[in-house]
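ESCALATION

Customer reports they have been waiting on this structure for their group meeting. Please prioritize. Original submission:
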Amino acid sequence: MFANMTLWQLLAKGGWTMIILLGFSGVSWFIIFERIIRYHQAKLDVDGFMAKIKKLVQTNHMVEAADLCQETPGPVAATLKAGLRHFDKGVVSAREAMERVSAMELLRLEHMLSTLATVGSVSPFVGLFGTVLGIISAFTALAGNAGAGPTVVANGIAEALVATAAGLFTAVPAVVLYNYFVRRVTRFDTEMATTASDLLDAMYTKSEPEDNSAPATPTHLRPGRG
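Update from on-call: job pushed to the front of the queue and completed.
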């Protein structure tokens, strides 16, 4: 039935709900590609990066460490840069600065994910609504043509189910990739928290100096004392 139809003819068969689903699909794929690019740019070898930062911090090269964060893209580097910029103001100020920046970075990482989730959850219902309208139209046509056989109803229902198929086609990739993106955001959040904690330890935790001197001789045992 649909083998020789063009895309626009198929959209027409599904009714006006197909236009809505086409718009949903466009929005969904725009968000998907935009988030893939954004997360790829934010990806970072955290272990290697932290090794460089700790080495600079332990040698008191705070400015160089902050410059390295400035040159490195991604939420982890932005968070650490805030802590390094507030190093001279104390541990509380540095921690609060990193918390503020990490919260803003988290908002950027979650940008448009709620829209993608909405598309994934609403699209099947829009498609089902289009199918219901199509079935109503098919039975209305049958009622107006008493001599029509079941073929008329079957054709109408088949055409109406196009809307359901379109709704599922729109929803499935949106839901799957939304869950994937949520996992990526959770990983970024964990990386920001752990690296911020490691930086605070490196900046403010000082090792106790070892005392290799011989124990002092008690006063009453020193020579010359009666």
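Sent to customer with the following note: The mean pLDDT is 84.
Escalation resolved.
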